[in-house]
């Protein structure tokens, strides 16, 4: 039997707001639909990161716990080579900031991130809270992304990185245009939801970076969730648009 695909959940004792663990479960579930066995490894903040993970998932966190996570990550001398290595890394919110060059931490104090993403994170004038919609950038086959955001941080994406998506609704990186950061094997976003439950094709894309092409599976109940959330938040689906679609 093939070795299971190892999904490493990074610091679940500190990071994981709004059910971000659901991202780990979504990856395992979507792999399972294709008969790919997975093993979920929780690595706590006082444990060293394992170099042997196939896919790493980092969740969001409040400012104080995010700072503890930053300390743990910076103290782990293998963190940069593991997250900058060949295994895909999926990072949400605080996770995005921790992998960036700098972020503003507890009480707005500047903090150093791992610097694997060419991005710097500043502060929004007001916390961004609500539904968010984006069109993915350079992710063939991935449809409109839907999520929930609750963050104070921004992200200014430098020339070595690219955004995850262009903004349709919501605040995202805070520049009015973009959301998230992608660079090398890292996909980072401000979206909760959990975002990989709301956007299963994004989960598949991350898995395929490890497994190669996966069989297409029938749309499941999460499609209904996607539709509901997009109906609620995507301005392109506002009543005028819907009426004209119905008339056809
Ligand atoms: N503490 C960070 C911020 O407010 C990240 C928040 C989060 O992970 N939800 O920007």
Description:
With 248 residues, this protein is of the alpha/beta class. It has a single domain (5-218), classed as Class I glutamine amidotransferase (GATase) domain (Rossmann fold, 3-Layer(aba) Sandwich), CATH 3.40.50.880. The chain has helices at 21-33, 63-75, 79-83, 94-99, 195-198, 200-211, 222-233, 239-247; strands at residues 5-10, 38-43, 55-58, 89-92, 102-104, 110-112, 119-120, 123-136, 145-153, 156-157, 165-169, 178-179, 181-183, 186-189. A six-stranded mixed beta sheet has the order 2-1-3-4-14-13. A four-stranded antiparallel beta sheet has the order 9-8-11-12, with helices on one face. The protein has a two-stranded antiparallel sheet with strand order 5-6. Helix 1 (21-33) packs across helix 6 (200-211). The longest helix has 13 residues, at 21-33. 44% of the residues are buried. Mean pLDDT is 95; it is low at 243-248. The chain binds glutamine. The site of glutamine has 12 residues, from helix 2 and strand 9.
Question: Summed up, what is this model?
Answer:
The protein is of the alpha/beta class and 248 residues long.
Question: Which molecules are bound besides the chains?
Answer: glutamine
Structural class: alpha/beta
Low-confidence segments: 243-248
Taking all Cα atoms into account, the compactness measure Rg is: 18 Å
* H-E order: EHEEHHEHEEEEEEEEEEHHHH
Total beta-strand segments: 14
CATH homologous group name: Class I glutamine amidotransferase (GATase) domain
CATH architecture identity: 3-Layer(aba) Sandwich
Overall pLDDT score: 95
Strand content: 25-35%
Q: Alpha-carbon distance between the termini? A: 53 Å
**Count of separate structural domains:** 1
